[in-house]
Description:
Elements: E1 13-20, E2 23-29, H1 34-41, E3 47-49, E4 54-58, H2 63-73, E5 78-79, H3 81-90, H4 99-105, H5 124-139, H6 144-160, H7 171-183, H8 189-206, H9 231-239, H10 244-256, H11 260-264, E6 271-272, E7 277-280, E8 289-292, H12 298-308, H13 325-339, H14 347-360, H15 365-372, H16 377-380, H17 388-391, H18 397-405
Parallel strand pairs: 1-5
Antiparallel strand pairs: 1-2, 2-4, 3-4, 6-7, 7-8
Amino acid sequence: MYDQFFDAKPAGVRLEKLFHRDLNCIAIHFPYDGYLITVTKQIEGILFSKTHRCWYVPDQAGLLKNLIAHFKRHNVEVDYSSINKASELLKDTDVSIDKQQATKIISLPPVEKPETKKLRALNEEQQIVLRMIEQKLHLKGYTSNTTKTYLFQFKEFMHFYANSYPIGLTDIDIRNYLLYLVEKKKVSKSTQNQAINAIKFFYEIVMGQVRQTYYIERPMKDRPLPQVLSEEEVVSIIQHAGNIKHTTMLMLIYAAGLRRSELINLKPGDVDMDRLTVFIRGGKGRKDRQSILAKQMIPMLKEYMKQYRPKRWLYEGKDGERYSAASMQMVLKKAVERAGIKKHVKLHTLRHSFATHLLESGTSTRYIQTLLGHESSRTTEIYTQVSRFALDKIKSPLDNILRLDK
């Protein structure tokens, strides 16, 4: 009856699931429009939520069908895709998952629960979203660590909007969540970036949305200088490593400038003792590269191979599995303690020390960049700031002043 007063076609409405005041509801979203308000108020049992800034109706059997029919009678387009999105996406061949097998496919990471508030369990649709994300991560060849991180971060995101389905969230919702992480939870910039990457992966890769559909400001990265050990400290750590397995493990990280993950992924055949090279498969960015091997450690490495006879992995843990990163870090921690070194030393510190010591010995940053597998030379150039080679040539002005005073 109102259509005759409007020349233009009215704006559409968007229907979404909403959990409000302990009730399952259907929310009705639309931009401010007098005609739509009039049409919406005709719905029996309609209510307005100041919290969610939308109209809603407590859900019941047949409600969705009746709402669609009501709006269509008044020439209003209805978008209810977010309500049925989960079931629709399961039919998509690119991200299809059998519901009965879904629980077998995925082992979801645990959620860190806040001390003051117990998190509500994710509903079935949200669980499906996580399964979709994990399947896509596997298909694109992401590492297990990245997969766990993305799943955890997106699960936290869905807990924040527990009453909304992710498809219906806007870039404003995303920005509000990121502000919550920064201002309320006070997470690190690294964690902020993890959350952003997980959110972008879902909307852009899983859902196929273009990047311009929402905008997120990324935090500026902290640029701390790398912690570097002296050559004497490296020798002392190696001498206090313990058995031959632990000793060669730390020696190899330093000798070749390896990342922790690169060492535990080495196979016996990746170490070429004749050519003094180490072949690194699928390093950061899934790139292969070669690095150098110290001639001095060859006899000890041969003895290690003779004693332990590694089969699949160069360093194996229980039952022939890869040596764990946590165990490797513990090996270093004990060696550092026994050596009496007070610096905060991590496995990556050995890699930093490798690069810095090469630079101090006159090796070009271009060669160091290749050995480390850095994509950009700017990453490698940070070692010039901690190199004694450069600092030793610069005298403090205080030395000149005191010399003149004598």
